[in-house]
Amino acid sequence: MIETDAQSSIIRMFHVHHNYGAHRALVDITLDISKNDFVFITGPSGAGKTTLLKLLYLAESVSEGQILIDGMNLSRVPRKRIPFLRRKFGIIFQDYKLIASRTVFDNVSLVLEAAGKKRRLIQKKVRSVLRLVGMEDQQNTFPPSLSGGEQQRVAVARAIVGDPKIILADEPTGSLDDDSANIIMGLLNGVHIRGATVIIATHDKDLISKTGGRVLSLKQGRLEESAFAEKHYDNSIF
Amino acid sequence: MTILFSKRAVEDFRNNRLLNIITLLTISLSILIVCAFILFFINTNEIMNLWEKGLRVMAYLKPELPDSQLRGLTRQIQSISGVEKVRFISKKEALIQLKEQMKRQASLFDHLDENPLPDAFEVQLSAANQTWDKVEFIAAKIEAIDEIQEVEYGQRWLGRYTNIFNLFKLTGYTMCGIFFMASVFIVANTIRLVIYSRRDEIEIMRLVGAEERFIKMPFYFQGLMQGAAGAGISLVILYVAYLAIASNIEQGLFSGQFHVRFLSPLMLGTIIFISMLVGWFGSYLSLKQYLKV
What is the pLDDT of residues A22-60, one digit of tens each? Predict the structure, then answer.
């Protein structure tokens, strides 16, 4: 089911299947995500939400079907080009995936260092992003001494510092209290307002109804429905 | 980028301190043993050269040879290729020399009715022919002359010593090879353990779009630094040991006539370079096997 025109699409999936051995994790997924969409991928545990995200950033390869990201066919991306593809994404994980032995600043700067940016630019950009997520004062702190909410804010900073076109968030508020979750969702809204496409995998229906956006429901690896959820949440603080 | 990679390598070293210290000590020990061998060979070679330079052939004449034949014999020996100078030493002159050398045992000569020493030629060889093989060849040619009764080239034992020395050399090369391989595997193992301890970090780097080069470079730097530091430590230890024992050897064994040499700056540079290469190669092996990006 192609819902938007190819011109404005940033992600297109055509009859995508993914199997883990005999287990069919995703079955015949066809969808389009437009530029600057705010999309929730929802469904119960094991529905295939995380697998779908992994296919996008090539942590997994499709068993069948094709995926186009910003016009680039993922099946034709050579191994050496995968890092360049991944720079189109900012990825946020439920378990934050921060490097414990590096400071907040170093965790965020890693993205720009990996992209070969100049030191001066890195300093400037990282400080500005940390200011945006409210972690500037803790830039020299190591992640283990931060709360879960703070760690996730650092993860958001890392995801957005490279100005990616697409933000992928896998259960970004899954292990956070309500206040921290609100802050994270506010930050993601802010990124969306600035033009990024945001895709959030979550099973939290409250989160979806509070934030609003397009909802793609998965069940046992199949795309069950695509709908639009109205926003019941005031994000004026952002 | 070089600064960044070096910084990361130093951070890794700090984070895996014990592992890296053990690796460093093992590399140092391996290089120390190899360098000690090299130092031993250099100095032994020097001593051998010194001894070989003093090589001369003594050709003893048959008794009662008429003086008229001496000039012809001198010319005949002089014409052998490799002979630089021929000097006739009469039996009388030889006895005087012997008495001079054995001053303390002068009484031995008191009841000597007849001079037991033969007339002889002292044959000096040209500089290019002062190797063991050539001396042996020239001596055989002189010995083939009818009027010559016996040829003596004083340090026959030097030949046997050369063989033993060559055997040592071979053992040395083998040991160098073994230590080289041991160092490579030790570095490879350390890097493997560091890769294992940093697997989450590496995974995160991949996810944020880091290229293979960006992920691998700090490990190469770490290998190079381990090699350089290992060589540095071993050379310092070797130099201290050299200072402590060189003068004793010079005074005790060679009465100050031989100066024990240390490794030349070129050799020091080469050892550090090779050691860094060992570190790099260890990292390379480990990355090739365990870090498939």
Answer: 899 999 999 999 999 999 999 998 899 999 999 999 999
Q: How far is B187 from chain A (nearest CA, A)?
A: 23
Residue type, B141: K
Give ipTM to 2 decimals.
0.83
Any residues with CB less than 8 A from the CB of A6 and at least 6 apart, and which? A12, A32
Question: Among residues 22-61 of chain A, which lie with CB inside 8 Å of chain B?
Answer: 57, 59
In chain A, residues with a C-beta closer than 8 Å to the C-beta of B212 are: 80, 83
Nearest partner of B120 among B158, B95, B91, B162, judged by Cα:
B91
Q: How far apart are alpha carbons B51 and B155 in whole angstroms? A: 9
Count of other CB atoms within 10 angstroms of residue B73: 21
- Give the DSSP letter of residue A211: H
CB B258: neighbour CB atoms within 10 A?
Answer: 14
Q: Please state, as a whole number, how many other Cβ atoms lie within 10 Å of the Cβ of residue A109.
A: 25
Q: Is A115 on the interface with B (CB under 8 A)?
A: yes
**Cα A143 from Cα B26, distance rounded (Å):** 34
> For B121-156, what is each residue's pLDDT tens digit?
988 877 676 666 777 788 888 888 888 888 887 555
| Cβ contacts of A113 on chain B, cutoff 8 Å | 4, 214
Report the relative pairing of strands A23-34 and A197-201 from DSSP bridges.
Answer: unpaired
Given an 8 Å threshold on Cβ–Cβ distance, is A59 in contact with B210?
Answer: no
Write down the pTM of the prediction: 0.68
Chain A positions touching B204 (Cβ under 8 A) are 97-99, 110
- CA dist., res. A189 & res. A203, Å (int): 18
- Tokens 């879960």 belong to which residue? A148
pLDDT score of B126 = 77
CB contact under 8 A, A97 and B200: yes
